[in-house]
Amino acid sequence: MIERDTGIRSGGALNWFIQRISGVVLLIVLLVHFWVLHFFPPAGGEITYQTVMLRLSHPLWRTIDLVFLVFGLYHGANGVLLVIHDYIRQPMLRIALVGTLFVAALIFLVIGSMTILGLA
Amino acid sequence: MHYRWKTGMLAWVMFRITGLALVGYLAMHIIVISNLHDPAKFDATMGFLGSWTFRLLEIGLFVVVLYHALNGVRIFIVDFFNGALFQARLFWILMAVGGVLFIAGAYPMFSHAMHWKHIQQGSAHTQLMKPAGGACCQPDAGKEASHD
Predict the structure, then answer these.
(1) Structural domains present in chain B
(2) Which of A11, A77, A103, B136 meets the CB 3.0–4.6 Å disulfide criterion with A57?
(3) Mutation choice for A interface testing from B118, B129, B130 by most A CBs within 10 A
(4) A–B interface: beta-carbon pairs under 8 A
């Protein structure tokens, strides 16, 4: 675990591959997201509790938003991981930052999922 | 030793900066949307973020997303389709595509920011906007809660 987190023995081929696949997924979902929420939003572009809940009441939208959340967080956290590995040479600092990143990503995943599923 | 500022270098630096910016935005976005647990608070927050200042910033976000997405496409082509042979030309072609997409996308966003009423009714996505089964939420709850 420590070897992997410090990047000393990390080949990263799988991460490299998933980063590209998640990028493609994000491209598709983002297109839908921007189209509906930014370019042609219903009700004159006002985003209110009512319009959001109406949209989220459809299971397909919940699924789209969950996919967006999971892939976005993975892609983003993996990107930050890459930046940490590029610039942080000190092993202890690197472990601390990677740990913080992992915990932060997990917290945002929980907050986001609960919001989308209406559990909060 | 110093770096040579060629196209690939420029693309890489901007890719990294926009990527980090998007991570920051994603974190803020998740926190803002988590206000959905409280309808009144959500509408108040959205009202605040609906001002033209934030609508214009949203167009800035669009530029950042557009750049990151298009350069991501370039990286995909470089990695999987021997794009390294023409990556610099590809970069500028995609930036031109980005320019067109920016104009196409920024116009509706700008008109929302300026509150121009041009939103059409009955477009394709309104099918999806309909609740799956019966009422999903009290129709008047949000209305009463907003702007107080």
Answers:
(1) 7-116 (1.20.1300.10)
(2) B136
(3) B129
(4) 129
Give, for all 120 residues of chain A, the pLDDT tens digit.
455 555 545 557 788 888 999 999 999 998 888 788 766 766 566 778 888 888 888 899 999 999 999 999 999 999 999 999 999 999 999 999 999 999 999 999 999 999 999 876
Q: What is the pLDDT of residues B42-85, one digit of tens each?
A: 888 888 887 888 888 888 999 999 999 999 999 998 888 987 88
Question: What residue of A is the nearest CA neighbor of B69?
Answer: A27
The chain B residue lying nearest A58, using CA atoms, is B132
Shortest CB distance from B137 goes to which of A45, A54, A73?
A: A54
Contacts 24+ apart (CB under 8 A), B128-133: B128/A36, B128/A55, B128/A58, B128/A60, B128/A61, B129/A42, B129/A54, B129/A55, B129/A58, B130/A58, B131/A54, B131/A57, B131/A58, B132/A57, B132/A58, B132/A59
**Prediction pTM value:** 0.78
Per the structure, how many domains does chain A have? 1
CATH of the domain at A30: 1.20.1300.10
Q: Which of B31, B127, B137 should one mutate to test binding to chain A, selecting the residue with the greatest count of A CBs within 10 A? A: B137
Between A38, A60, A114, which is nearest B128 by CB?
A60
- Residue A37: which domain range? 2-117
What is the ipTM for the molecules in this complex? 0.84
Q: How does DSSP classify residue A41? A: -
